[in-house]
């Protein structure tokens, strides 16, 4: 045993902040976020120390990192921020007693500090759009009002619930405390994203949402607003209880009243409830690639759905020598292996979760089962089935049926002649992680339905709970990912935010095709255009964007905008194989 003294300088931003240490040996918690070791603050208020007996032989190397935590409402820490340099700090054990000397939090080598994963707390996100508030503010004769939120922990009133805000109309989109008298909503496209901080998972919270007037306008008789100070007044107030947010994501009605309890109208608020993963043993603070991307001097070869699309959209295939490639079924393990063999740096593929919690490889939300009447070769019936309603065992039967037509989602009730088991649909993500050559990275696109601007919902049914679905995927990836290069991608902004907060190892990319003529845009202000997706990616502190090259060819300034915002940009589609465009 060696007695090690660790010392670090950190000036707390709040009185509840505690500096902790984690490291590579058991006495330092073996990198577990559940075993962070608190340090002691001296009288100066900024110097933190701890003496720890470490199980290390003389000459061995101990790796460690510092983290800033909050233990106020739970014995399990809320990790506010932690050091995420790719290489941890390290100290060589040379004597029975050793000290690191005074270090500075976040400063060694390159400076990289990030927020930690959710461990014992959850986050609730509320999104307000100026466009949805217009009719209400017009009735109040107030086109320029402020919106503020207070959050009260009704389970334990001694626990504060800070609420941070991201304003998508600001250049600095970093999360920050609200302004004293709320946030201004000026233009019709303004969007405010509010998020709770440090709310224990078993606590309920009451949100008080206020519309606040600035200026000298006299109130109407109906308003009778409460005076705050000067010419600030509360025009309307509404309440949302967290226990009414029954799904992971959804929309909640918010009814506004004046101080005389007269109804003034209502709006619809989009929300997301982000829970920590239940299997925290999978978490590790040893390394984080969440905002790391190695710069290269040449383009990456990324296999779309493996070796590329198969059995449909042949018009998109311009390579005259590609016939053999497109005969390999897309989104199959066989296709991934072939792509790896032919030099792919990454393969991109789509993942869904079965009814019994197994992540499987498939593109669409549902597939069609074509059934023929006995004794007839023409009378058929089509049954549409959602993957989330099927068990893995049921899919194991269906995957052996013969695909029909040019689609990738239709199956005929007769046995396939496919020889390769890996070439069948609905392969397991775990199997892909275990059998595809590890040098081939994975772009795991997580499918979750959204609403299109014109055609409406992508999927008419009720999707699987988002927390449940993402936890199932993350458990498999964290357990079997090994040394493979992996990043997650998704079109749904809430999926991106959740993956980022549930784990800290793998990066997340937000997919966005902007205002391209090839695809319909989604009806979500966070992703309706590339510019908003850039701001949303910064707000959620993810790695960057996956985009269609058409947007960036038309407007190259978007590339500079991504890079100036500290984001990584990955472009796809056929245009990216043109050397002049690259």
UniProtKB/TrEMBL annotation:
SUPFAM superfamilies in UniProt: PLC-like phosphodiesterases, Starch-binding domain-like
GO molecular function: phosphoric diester hydrolase activity; starch binding
Pfam families, per database record: CBM_20 (PF00686), GDPD (PF03009)
PANTHER family in UniProt: GLYCEROPHOSPHOCHOLINE PHOSPHODIESTERASE GPCPD1, GLYCEROPHOSPHORYL DIESTER PHOSPHODIESTERASE
Biological process (GO), any one: lipid metabolic process
InterPro entries per UniProt: Carb-bd-like_fold, CBM20, GDPD, GP_PDE_dom, Ig-like_fold, PLC-like_Pdiesterase_TIM-brl
Domain CBM20 stretches: 1-110
UniProt keyword annotation of Hydrolase present: yes
Domain GP-PDE span(s) in chain numbering: 299-582
Name of this chain's protein: Glycerophosphocholine phosphodiesterase GPCPD1
UniProt keywords, alphabetically: Hydrolase
Annotated signal sequence range: none
């Amino acid at each position: 045993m060696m007695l090690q003294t660790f010392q670090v300088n950190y000036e707390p931003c709040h009185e509840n902040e505690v500096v902790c240490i984690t490291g590579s040996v058991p006495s330092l918690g073996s990198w577990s976020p559940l075993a962070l070791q608190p340090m002691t603050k001296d009288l100066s208020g900024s110097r933190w120390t701890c003496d720890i007996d470490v199980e290390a032989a003389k000459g061995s190397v101990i790796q460690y990192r510092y983290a800033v935590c909050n233990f106020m409402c739970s014995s399990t820490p809320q990790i506010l921020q932690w050091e995420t340099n790719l290489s941890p700090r390290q100290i060589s054990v040379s004597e029975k007693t050793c000290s690191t000397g005074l270090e500075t939090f976040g400063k060694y080598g390159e400076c990289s500090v990030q927020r930690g994963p959710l461990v014992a707390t959850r986050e609730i996100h509320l999104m307000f759009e100026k466009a949805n508030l217009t009719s209400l503010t017009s009735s109040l004769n107030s086109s320029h009002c402020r919106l503020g939120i207070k959050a009260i922990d009704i389970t334990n009133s001694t626990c504060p619930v800070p609420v941070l805000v991201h304003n998508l109309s600001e250049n600095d989109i970093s999360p920050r405390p609200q302004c004293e008298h709320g946030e201004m909503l000026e233009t019709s496209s303004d969007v405010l994203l509010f998020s709770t901080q440090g709310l224990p998972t078993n606590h309920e919270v009451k949100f008080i949402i206020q519309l606040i007037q600035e200026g000298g306008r006299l109130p109407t008789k109906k308003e009778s607003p409460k005076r705050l100070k000067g010419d600030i007044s509360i025009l309307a107030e509404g309440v949302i209880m967290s226990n009414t947010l029954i799904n992971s994501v959804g929309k909640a009605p918010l009814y506004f009243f004046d101080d005389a309890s007269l109804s003034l109208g209502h709006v619809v608020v989009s929300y997301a409830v982000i829970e920590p993963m239940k299997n925290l043993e999978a978490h590790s603070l040893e390394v984080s690639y969440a905002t790391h991307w190695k710069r290269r001097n040449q383009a990456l070869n990324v296999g779309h759905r493996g070796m590329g699309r198969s059995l449909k959209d042949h018009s998109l295939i311009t390579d005259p020598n590609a016939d053999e490639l497109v005969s390999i079924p897309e989104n199959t393990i066989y296709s991934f292996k072939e792509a790896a063999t032919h030099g792919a740096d990454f393969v991109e593929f789509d993942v869904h979760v079965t009814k019994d919690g197994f992540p499987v490889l498939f593109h669409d939300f549902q597939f069609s089962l074509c059934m023929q009447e006995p004794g007839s070769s023409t009378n058929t019936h089509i049954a549409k089935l959602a993957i989330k309603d099927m068990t893995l065992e049921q899919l194991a039967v269906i995957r052996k049926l013969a695909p029909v037509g040019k689609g990738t989602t239709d199956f005929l009730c007769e046995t396939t002649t496919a020889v390769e088991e890996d070439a069948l649909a609905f392969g397991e993500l775990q199997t892909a992680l275990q059998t595809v050559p590890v040098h081939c990275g994975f772009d795991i696109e997580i499918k979750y339905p959204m609403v299109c601007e014109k055609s409406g919902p992508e999927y008419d049914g009720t999707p699987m709970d988002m927390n449940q679905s993402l936890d199932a995927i993350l458990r498999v990836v964290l357990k079997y990912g090994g040394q493979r290069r992996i990043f997650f991608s998704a079109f749904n902004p809430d999926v991106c935010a959740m993956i980022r907060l549930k784990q800290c190892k793998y990066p997340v990319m937000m997919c966005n095709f902007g205002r391209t003529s090839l695809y319909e845009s989604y009806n979500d202000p966070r992703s309706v255009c590339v510019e908003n997706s850039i701001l949303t990616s910064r707000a959620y502190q993810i790695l960057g964007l996956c985009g269609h090259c058409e947007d960036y060819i038309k407007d190259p300034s978007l590339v500079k905008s991504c890079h100036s915002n500290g984001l990584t940009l990955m472009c796809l589609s056929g245009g990216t194989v043109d050397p002049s465009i690259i």
